[in-house]
Amino acid sequence: MTDMPSIPTLSLPGGSGRMPKLGLGTWPMRGAECRRAVEAALALGYRHIDTAEMYGNEADIGAALAASALPRDALFVTTKVWHDHLTPSGIRAACEASLGRLRLDHADLYLVHWPSPAMDLDAVLGAMARLKEDGLARAVGVSNFPPGLLRRALGTGAPIACVQVEYHAFLSQERLLALTRPAGVALTAYSPTAKGAGEKDAALQGIARKHGRTPTQVALAWLLEQDGVAAIPKAAGEANQRANLEAASLRLDAEDRAAIAALPKGRRLVDPGIVSDWDA
Ligand SMILES: NC(=O)c1ccc[n+]([C@@H]2O[C@H](COP(=O)([O-])OP(=O)(O)OC[C@H]3O[C@@H](n4cnc5c(N)ncnc54)[C@H](OP(=O)(O)O)[C@@H]3O)[C@@H](O)[C@H]2O)c1
């Protein structure tokens, strides 16, 4: 589609390529719903798709990517290894299986989905680095690492290009951003619309009225304007996909940013009990 706003990209470190700042989240879609959603998004102009082995939808996404006939280098596909596969051989096998389901010979970004208390951090990051060296992933990174663990991971010198965490107008990630920004590491915001909760927030509603947009578009624009930050809203249907894409063209002003900064920032929506202390 030529009339859609273009999606800005950000550079990943180490010549690992450029990641579109806006991607399509795909959890918890599966089967025909997932395939239709990805096909619709690609037709609208999305080029960044987020999945994981745990989502059980990589084969549906692989079918949608193949049907699009888009050139491989136009696409940015992220997938993730589940926390019960965090041994060197487990990571390798999980990555190869994901690529098979996605019908790809490499992922653009391969992430450790959640840390595991049982993992050997150096061994895990070494195995991730080997995926990059061997061409199975253009870039590697981690997800759901609290600040202390991320600091240790970055300190190993592993080629971490991106950190994916919950981040939205109601949850601060200043401590993680203070680690990622100086290192040139990207931060991808998951649950970036706070699962649609912004629609009911008075401050976001007020900003939205001022700009003739929706509160969810305001919440996304606030993320997309931040240095080094990408966002992967999930939207099953074309209307919300289009609205989220159009958020990339919304320019907030200082008054808007001050109102969003003043929102309470402690609302964590995704916490399956794998990380025992988010502040550690
Ligand atoms: N790394 C991790 O551990 C992790 C954890 C959670 C999520 N993720 C990734 O992040 C993605 C997004 O996170 P999420 O799904 O938790 O939260 P989200 O994207 O903030 O919220 C998705 C919800 O918001 C609705 N929505 C989307 N666009 C909207 C719009 N413009 N207006 C109103 N409502 C809208 C969607 O409805 P419709 O579908 O009906 O449009 C859906 O119910 C996931 O799909 C997954 O790929 C990663």
UniProtKB/TrEMBL annotation:
Give the residues the record marks as binding substrate: 113
Give a yes or no for keyword Membrane in this entry: no
A GO term (biological process) for this protein?
Answer: methylglyoxal catabolic process
Q: What protein am I looking at?
A: Methylglyoxal reductase, acetol producing / 2,5-diketo-D-gluconic acid reductase B
Q: Which InterPro entries match?
A: AKR, Aldo/ket_reductase_CS, NAD(P)_OxRdtase_dom_sf, NADP_OxRdtase_dom
Keywords for this protein = NADP, Oxidoreductase
Stored PANTHER family? 2,5-DIKETO-D-GLUCONIC ACID REDUCTASE, NADP-DEPENDENT OXIDOREDUCTASE DOMAIN-CONTAINING PROTEIN
Q: Which family does it belong to?
A: Belongs to the aldo/keto reductase family.
Where does the record place the site Lowers pKa of active site Tyr? 80
Q: What domain of life does the native source organism fall in?
A: Bacteria
Q: Does the keyword NADP apply?
A: yes
The record, for Pfam families, names: Aldo_ket_red
Known EC number(s)? 1.1.1.-, 1.1.1.274
Domain NADP-dependent oxidoreductase per the UniProt entry, residue ranges: 21-263
